[in-house]
Design brief:
The chain has about 450 residues and is an alpha+beta fold. The protein is built from 14 helices and 16 strands. It folds into 2 domains: about 130 residues, Nuclear Transport Factor 2, Chain: A (Roll); about 250 residues, Beta-lactamase. The strands form 5 sheets. The chain has a 5-stranded antiparallel sheet with strand order 1-4-5-6-7. The protein has a 5-stranded antiparallel sheet with strand order 9-8-16-15-14, with helices on both faces. Strands 2-3 form a two-stranded antiparallel ribbon.
Length: about 450
């Protein structure tokens, strides 16, 4: 993980021919020094914006996943041309964590933009996003946090707590007991069910799941692009489910365990009202009901739990929706996985305990693979992270353990009837980073 704060402009230096040239800034050097797969992808992506001329139409060959070009209306070249009109650029800061990076670039007029890069498990670029820099103010106390997170038209909840033996010390909470849609955070329950199955000898990490058309979901993740019949170990699938939030991977694991096993995990993990997650939806079922045939959505809304279960066999077929169909919000119809911030805390607590029981280190390796932020590992050597999103839904949660073994939990949740009020989640992510950096979690109370 690499993070370099905003650096001052470099003083001119003499080049070999005597002309003035700018010495590399600390941010340039950090970008150049990142030897990871995401570092390589980031240098390529930044080069597309900073090179003297516009890259050719073949610039993405061998660099991106197959579905990448189709994500840009009018083609990627046209999008890149538009991005470059805001230059020439200077690299101002660079951050990378696991499979994601964020490079802040200052244009000629001083306006700053962030280039976000996401790669798949093979280092191919899954997404490039270039948008005006999101500025999140420093957070010095909990009142200031509330001032920042309070947005008209957006419901939110916050929970910050220290987990001590036999008790939970709440540092700050706002509507933390209110159930809110949590998006992909449902995968924490799938992980708990999987750990229980492995502990009981019902499944092993080396067992395999098989990609099938009726279990192929939509991104995030990349397992949906694997050919039918591809066999992947449970260990790798679980890793992708958590670290890459792979929807197809989660559905493969959940189907292998059985819906009832995941529903038991919800109850065993201390959810305050497990019925809110029954029947427990697979991601592809949520996509199909939420943005597929209107009659399915209407039937889901009108029926009770038993009636909803009767709908699910009708969905045992390949998806009829695509990522482009996801538009209007549907969480108001019960189409999401509703969890309170306290529910999130309890499932994180359970997973932390699971990791300590697992002598193979597999659970720990999966849950700590992606911390979501650049974290000070001297202060927080153990970090669990999960994010969740759907149209109108955004949440981020962390369990951070300090060197003394004391666990701290931070949960931030947002929900709105309009996706545009929430955006792509970078605001909430960096707000979480501000809280972690602030020292508020370490305060005594």
């Amino acid at each position: 993980m690499i993070e370099v704060p905003e650096s001052a402009p470099s003083a001119p230096s003499a080049s070999s021919d005597g002309s003035a040239a700018s010495a590399p800034s600390a941010a340039d050097e950090a970008l150049a020094a990142d030897g990871s797969l995401v570092g390589d992808a980031s240098r390529w992506a930044v080069g597309l914006l900073t090179a003297a001329g516009l890259a050719s139409d073949t610039c993405t060959d061998g660099r991106v996943v197959s579905v990448f070009p189709g994500r840009y209306l009018g083609g990627f070249s046209a999008t890149l041309r538009e991005w470059r009109t805001k230059g020439p650029f200077t690299v101002r800061s660079y951050r990378s964590v696991a499979h994601k990076s964020w490079t802040d670039l200052a244009g000629a007029d001083g306006a700053c933009h962030t280039l976000a890069v996401t790669i798949d498990s093979n280092g191919l670029v899954r997404g490039l996003n270039f948008q005006p820099e999101i500025v999140v103010p420093e957070v010095r106390d909990w009142d200031q946090l509330e001032d920042v997170v309070r947005i008209p038209g957006v419901a939110h909840s916050v929970l910050a707590a220290r987990l001590e033996p036999g008790r939970t010390v709440v540092l700050h909470e706002t509507d933390a007991d209110r159930p809110m849609p949590a998006g992909s955070s449902y995968k924490l329950y799938v992980m708990r069910a999987l750990v229980r199955a492995v502990e009981n000898g019902e499944l092993s990490w080396d067992d395999e799941v098989t990609v099938r058309p009726d279990l192929r979901s939509l991104p995030t993740g990349d397992m949906q692009e694997l050919p039918d019949g591809t066999r992947v170990t449970v260990r790798e699938t679980a890793y992708k489910m958590i670290a890459f939030s792979d929807n197809t991977g989660a559905d493969l694991i959940a189907e292998r365990l059985g819906r009832a096993a995941v529903e038991r995990a919800v109850a065993d993990s201390g959810h305050h009202d497990p019925a809110l997650l029954r029947p427990f939806l697979y991601s592809r079922e949520l996509f199909e009901i939420g943005w597929g045939a209107p009659e399915l959505r209407a039937a889901w809304t009108e029926r009770d739990e038993a009636g909803r279960r009767e709908l699910l066999p009708r969905l045992a077929r390949p998806l009829s929706v695509s990522i482009g169909d996801l538009g209007e919000t549907v969480h108001q119809l019960g189409l999401d996985w509703h969890m309170s911030a306290y529910d999130v805390l309890e499932v994180l607590r359970g997973l932390a305990d699971d990791g300590e029981r697992d002598t193979t280190g597999t659970v720990e390796g999966i849950l700590t693979a992606y911390p979501g932020l650049v974290i000070d590992r001297e202060k927080w050597p153990r970090v669990f992270f999960k994010a969740g999103s759907c149209p109108g839904v955004m949440m981020f949660c962390w369990l951070l353990e300090n060197r003394a073994g004391v666990r701290h939990v931070l949960v931030l949740q947002q929900a709105a009837d309009e996706q545009k009020l929430i955006g792509d989640g970078q605001f909430l992510r960096w707000l979480g980073g501000r809280v972690v950096e602030s020292g508020l979690l370490e305060a005594t109370r």
